[in-house]
TrEMBL record:
It comes from the Eukaryota. Belongs to the NAD(P)-dependent epimerase/dehydratase family. Fucose synthase subfamily. Keywords: Isomerase, Multifunctional enzyme, NADP, Oxidoreductase. Pathway: Nucleotide-sugar biosynthesis; GDP-L-fucose biosynthesis via de novo pathway; GDP-L-fucose from GDP-alpha-D-mannose: step 2/2. Pfam families: Epimerase. It comes from Sesamum alatum. The lineage of its organism: Eukaryota, Viridiplantae, Streptophyta, Embryophyta, Tracheophyta. GO terms for molecular function: GDP-L-fucose synthase activity; isomerase activity. This is GDP-L-fucose synthase.
């Protein structure tokens, strides 16, 4: 399709603008000169309430919608609150997508997650792997909701010619990430642990596993750049993977975090602890074929994220 630049004065509703992804999308749109962003906190607009969402769309009629709002959490949270994860995410998606169509939104972009893919998907994981096998049981409640979001976008496109597209990012990191000691993801958890070890002069940091598993990370500002790119350049049924295409072992990751933080002690690998899946990489060749590629290296991204952590998290401890 031909590129369709978004008018700088277009009304754009970014749902979930305070989260890791939504806040990056807002930063990107602001930097590009978009002046008419619709932003609402959860207190101002409860996305799980159909009547509230419909009234919001009726009043403001956003021309574009970026659906980055979701209830997210780690394995423990998914195991403890499965009903919340499936219900809240289905409610948010159903309300926003159906109201966007009803009130004549021009285009909607739904953001999912790489957890939609089968546990034993081929590596790297192509878009076509969706629904070809069983999911990872620990987060299937969240994954089922996200798959339903993709299918809802496709269904509205088929039945109503509604221009709804979906993007599935790989593991993300960056400013506004969750650095909580118990329930954060691997990268922010490592940053925090190495920082605290440095500050407290701890001689060694113990990291779980062998250090051999391969992982992929994408800076959230790169994702935000791809979101704008897809809104302007993609209009089709299939969801689009958004990854960096660069793999790093957990050992390389830990050593890079150690270097960025400036920790001088040693890393000890506890190989009695589980490694998780040996390799997880998205096949992002479809997006590359459209003409987009990431720009932020892992080291530069980590350096910026650590700076943000020092200014916004560590400073308040």
């Amino acid at each position: 399709m031909d590129p369709a630049p978004i008018d700088k004065s277009a009304t754009i509703f970014v749902a979930g603008h305070r989260g890791l992804v939504g806040s990056a999308v807002v930063r990107k749109l602001n930097s590009l000169g978009y002046t008419n962003l619709l932003l609402r906190t959860h207190a101002e607009l409860d996305l799980t309430s159909q009547s509230s969402v419909d009234a919001f769309f009726a009043a403001h009629k956003p021309q574009y919608v970026i659906l980055a709002a979701a209830k997210v959490g780690g394995i423990h949270a998914n195991n403890t609150y499965p009903a919340d994860f499936i219900t809240i995410n289905l409610q948010i998606q159903t309300n926003v997508i159906s109201s966007a169509f009803k009130h004549n939104t021009r285009k909607l972009l739904f953001l999912g997650s790489s957890c939609i893919y089968p546990k034993f998907a081929p590596q790297p994981i192509p878009e076509s792997a969706l629904l070809t096998g069983p999911l990872e049981p620990t987060n299937e409640w969240y994954a089922i909701a996200k798959i339903s979001g993709i299918k809802m976008c496709q269904a509205f496109r088929i039945q109503h010619s509604f221009d709804a597209i979906s993007a599935m990012p790989t593991n993300l990191y960056g400013p506004n990430d969750n650095f909580h000691p118990e329930n954060s993801h691997v990268l922010p958890a490592l940053l925090r642990r190495f920082h605290e070890a440095k500050v407290n002069n701890v001689e060694k940091v113990v990291v779980w596993g062998s250090g051999k598993p391969l992982r992929e990370f994408l800076h959230v500002d790169d994702l935000a750049d791809s979101v704008v790119f897809l809104l302007e350049n993609y209009s089709d049924m299939e969801h689009v993977n958004v990854g960096s295409g660069k793999e790093v072992t957990t050992k390389e990751l830990a050593e890079l975090v150690k270097e960025v933080v400036g920790y001088k002690g040693e890393i000890v690998w506890d190989s009695s602890k589980p490694d998780g899946t040996p390799r997880k990489l998205m096949d992002s060749s479809k997006l590359a074929g459209l003409g987009w590629e990431p720009k932020i290296s892992l080291k530069d991204g980590l350096t910026g994220t650590y700076k943000w952590y020092l200014e916004n998290v560590a400073a308040q401890q």
